[in-house]
Structures are given as C-alpha cells and as structure tokens.
Design goal:
heterodimer; A: 393 residues; alpha+beta; Butyryl-CoA Dehydrogenase, subunit A, domain 2; Butyryl-CoA Dehydrogenase, subunit A, domain 3; 3 domains; four-stranded mixed β-sheet; four-stranded antiparallel β-sheet; 12 helices; B: 373 residues; Butyryl-Coa Dehydrogenase, subunit A, domain 1; seven-stranded mixed β-sheet; 11 helices; 9 strands; globular; oxidoreductase (chain A); FAD (chain A); Mycobact_Acyl-CoA_DH (chain A)
Chain lengths: 393, 373
Amino acid sequence: MNLDFDADDLRFRDEVREFFADGIPETWRTRVRAGLRLDPEDLIYYQRRLHARGWGAPTWPVEYGGTGWTPTQQYIFWSEAARADAPAQFHQGLELIGPIIFTYGTDEQKARYLPRILTLDDWWCQGYSEPGAGSDLAALRTRADRDGDDYVLNGQKMWTSYAHVASHVFVLARTSQEAKRQQGISLILVDMNTPGLRVQKIPTMDEKYHTNELFLDDVRVPVSNLLGEEGKGWGYGKVLLDRERMVSAATAIFLTQTVRGIRDAATRRRVGGVPLIETPGFATKLAQFEIEVIALQTMVLRLMDDAARGADSGPRGSMVKLRWSQLTQAGTALWVEALGPESAHFAPLGNGDGPAEDMPYALQGALYSRVTSIYGGSSEIQHNIIARRALGL
Amino acid sequence: MDFAYSDEQQMLRDSVLRYGEEHWAAADRLKTLAAGPEMTKRRWAEMAELGWLMLPIAESDGGLGGSAADVMAVMEGVGRHLMAVPYVTSCVLVPALLEGSEAGAELLGEIGAGTAVAAAGFLEADSGYDLRHVTTRTVRHGEGWRLSGAKVHVEDGADADWFVVSARTAGADHESDGIGLFLIDRAAEGLAVDGSRAIDGHRHARLMLDDVAAIPVGDVEAATPVIEAAVDRAIAAQLAEAVGSMEAASEATLDHLRTRHQFGVAIGSFQVLQHRMVDMVVAGEEARSMAYHATLNLGRDPHTRTRAVSAGKVRVAESGVYVGQQAVQLHGGVGFSEELIVSHHLRRQMMLAQAFGNADHHRTRFARLGAGA
C-alpha cells in the first residue's frame, strides 16, 4: 500500500507538465476555476492541441485514436491539467457518444464519426430528456417511425445542452410501442442540419447560454443512422454507467482549481486591514472545503486503483458524482463569499472599471453549480442507485 | 500507487477480525466491559501472544518494525470489534516517542511482550490540544531530573506502569523549542494518578507531578518534532479504528433496515431511510479514503504529513460521529439502549473524535499550514 508513482509514471508526469507549461491562456483561468465551460472556439482550440499531441481521448483505447492510458496515467493527466488551470475537455462526444459508437457502432459509423470527435470537427449534443421525461427517462415519447429506408422523428427534447453549437445530436426515440417502457427505444444519430430540427434557447439563472429545447418535426434520417440494434437503445446507457466513474473522477480532480480561485480572492480582499484568508472564520471554512476536496480526491484515487486492477468499484462512481456536485456548490459559494460586497457587481454598466476581476464568473459558477446536482442523474437519483446497487435496498 | 493490502496484511487483518469476533463479541459487550481491567489484562496477554503488541515497535528496539499500513490492518479490527485496549497509546504512540532511545529500550521490550503498559501525557490545563504549550517544570539534579506540574488528560493512562510526559527545559510556555520528553515510573514518589473510566470503556488518567524523579529521553530541548510525529502516528491508527467502527455500525444498521418491520413492511423500503443509509455509507467511504491518505503520508516531510493527518482527523471525526448518530437514529428506541452495539459505536466515535485534538483543532492546524504542494 503506497501513494507513490513509479519511475514510468513520474516520467509521464514530467512530460504532461511540460505540455501544460504553456499554451493555457491567462484569460481562461477564472472561468475554468469557477467550473464554467469556456467558449466553444476555445474548447475546440484546446481539443485540437491535445489531439495534435496524441492526447485527444485520454480514456479511449488506442485502436480508436485514444491514448490507451492506464488509470494512473489518466489521473496524472487530469491532475496536471487541473494544476495548469486547463479546462476539462468537452465530454458529450468524447465520453458520452464516442464510447457507444466504438462499442456498438458499425465499422462505417466508427470510421465516419470517431476521428471527427477527436478533432471536435463534429460537436455532439445529447437528445435524451423531454418535458415529461427527466429523472424518469423511460417516460420519453419522441417517436422514430420507419418509412422505407428512413426514420421520421417527431417529438421534443429538453435541456439539450450545446445544441446551439452542435453539428450532431444523438437521440433516444421510440421505434415501437412495447409493454415495458424501457423496450422499443432506439439510439439514432442525427445531423443538426437536417430539416425539421429547431433549437430554442432556454435562458438559465446564471445568464450563460448552455442549454436548449430541441423540436423534432418530421426529421428524416437514413436507417443507417441507427446505432446498434433497433429497440435496444436503453441498454446502451449501461456502457455509460460503467464509464461514468471515469467522467466523475475527472471532474472531481478539477476541484483543486476552485480551491485556488477561492484562495486568490480571499488573499486579495482585506477586511479590517487583514487579508480575508488570515481571518480565523474564513480560514477554517476554506480549510473545511479543502479537506473535503482531499477526501473526494482520495476516493477518486481509490477508484482509479480499482480500475487499474480490474476490480469492481461498485457504485463509487455515483458517490463521487454526489460528493463532487456538493463540493462544487460549496466551493463556488465560498468564492462568492470571499468577494464580499463586490459580489453584487455582476456586469459592468459601461461607465467605469466595472466589477471585480473574478466577476461575473465566480457568481456564474456558483449559480451554474446548482444544476450539477440535477443533471446526469440528480443527487436523489444517485442515492437511489447507491441504495439499490450497493446496499440491495 | 496502490491501495490494496498485501497478502500478509490481509492475513493480519483477517486474524484480528477473527479474534475480535471470538473475544469481543457484540452480544457479550456489557459482560466484557463489566469484567473491567482484569478482563483487559487477559485480552492483552492474548494479543501479546499473537505478536500484535510488538508489531509497531521498531526492529532496532526489539519489535517487528511493522509499517503504518500494517498497523492500519490491526486497527480496523480493533475498531470493528470495539476492543477497549490501550493499543494505540502503548504500542503505537509510546514506541514512536521512545524509538531509538537508550532510556526506553528496556520498556519497549516489555511493552512488546505485554508485561508492561505505558501511556503518554502532553496536555495541560491551559494548552487546549496544543502539544507545544508546556508548563510542566524540570529541575536538574546531577544526572537525574525532577518534574513538577500537571497533565490533565493521559489517554489510556489509568492502568499504565510507565508514563512518558512532555516538560519544559527552556523557553517560554508556548515555545516549540525547549520541550523535553521524560519517562516516569508509576511508583515514583510525588506522582499522583487520578484515573477515570470513559464512556467507551477506555480508562484514562490525570497526572499530578510534585518533584517526581524522571528519566530524560533523547534531546531534552528539542522533543517537539518527535512528539508531533508520534502523535500523528497515533492519530492515523485511530482513524483506521474509527473506520472499522463506522463500517460495523453501518452494517448493523443496514441489517436492521432489512429485518425490522413497521407499517407492515421492512423499514428499508422507505426511501427516506434508504437515502440516510446511503449518506452513512458515503461517509464511511470518505473516512476510509482519509484514513489511507493520512496513513500513507506518515513517512513524508512534516508539512505534508501534518496536513494529511489533520485533514484525515477532521473528516473522520465528522463522519464517525455522523455515522454513529445515524446508526442510533435508524435503530429507533433500541438504538438508545445501553446494550445494543450501535450505541457503543457512537460512544467510541464521540471519544475518538476528540482524542489527540478535535476537528476544530485540526481544521485550524490545517489552515495554518497553508496551500498544499
């Protein structure tokens, strides 16, 4: 039992550290630390830079253009990225649809889609939730009716994040009506330029554009856009469950960035002539946050260690998701607290210097963080998953 | 990076667990505790025979030189079966304080063999949990030393044959330099030992020293780094103990949720109880992670070590008390009874939470250490 990296891992760490030593623009820093996504063009630039280095897909096998890294190497890569204030890679192509394509897709689909995910030439979004199907996804009603060699899709998707940027969407739709709701659902790949698709922005409380409604009105796509077997789409979500632990793991590693954001803000701000960070009240709150981040990161390390030895880590992925969302909420709230009265200054009115240098990102991050315990299986759903899978309740 | 016990450590862990099931059975808890120190002595002799008492003692001091992870393997079982024995104090803390010293050589042999028990006293009336605030005075008499002062809490000190105490040889009351370690025979003239039973079956002491003869250990003006490193080892061992206890309390609670029926159904079918149970298990996972984090950082530089140990102490103290409290809550009325094992886990968790510094103390220590590497 030890926490040490071996010589190969240390060499790898140096290599990654060198890569991150430059090329991360200063202007990204605050947004990244606040847990906010960068603008699409910045994420595309970043993804292409990684891809050029051969590191476009840290979790994919080599045969599909991935790195084939060990879990320890993945951990090192994400830690170094976090340390350099680099962003997390956009995950909907890389972690959500990519692995389903290389697991269940045809050779033609693999050849057509996977390389363009690596370069972010294709930007994928996820068409799962609907107005009546949130946590209860199996209640979805969007239909895909067979018409000759085409499917004709009709329905409405909700919370389709980045649909306004995406070139493609993967849609869960009903291809038949079955007694069991989870059956008769298929996974279909749709080009966003297909006639009949309409994207409508959903404004969110953080005033950042993330997400949309997606209307499908007689959207006609060839049957060859079906991924895997017709009617088996629900089961493909399972491959995601197994990979989910890696996605949660990666995001949890990036929490150290928030610690730095808070630390900088609390060092800059003075209260009664003393830096806020030196006041006992704030110092212990920051310590508490940082300690809980250490606990979560050690859970992540154990997860990676399980993965390395091929052991089943059970529902620890759900635990990490649960705790990560709590901590990103606590951390960004503490950052806003560190800004004090100036945290009320959200946007400049154009007649002076405007808000503090952290703004609006600190507050946007705090507001955005509220959705992290709702999306991707709400905290309450995670509790249900853990109760069922780990405790047999 | 490796979080798995080696085969040897797994065997050690298993044998402690088996021993606990046989000799510290939950169903016999009250009887075991009622038998008092005589029972503890019997158990102690058994543990000595199994070689566990000399495990943490350095090889150069005649022990087995077990690693921190070896100690963790033992402590999980100690916690799971609530063994109310002075293992952490006598076999982990004192040997770390006396390591390599001429003064302690003979005693360490006796501790490992189970023929002597030792405890360590640092805290004083005004010190809080600060190990550097030491006012116990020393006077030199030729080769010998005499100590006067009071130690307000000596963990597991009630039945100790020897005491290791900190005392000031130079400097002001709060300075970290000028503190020495001294060994005191329980029978020494001028020493008063005021023992108390704790709610978890441990037996502690308060020491009054009035010109007591004492044997100096190591550099009598520079013991602070030794004390802090030794206490960190003791804390790490207790974190593993807390984890073992939390997991036992959670398992008992899960069992109860499955078997207890109310309103015509198993109470584990209620979502509110399922979610509470999940929170207990998540707390247990965090605590186990923190026990590893603290233990596996013990050998690193003092900044890294103290940061890791304080972080572990804060989170495990919080999680341990939480799990103990919820175990009682989910058992309902019977959880509050003296007899039921979960109430013993809560009592132990409450005591562990404040041993060697409570969460507040360690949160402050962590904050003062600043950013990590």
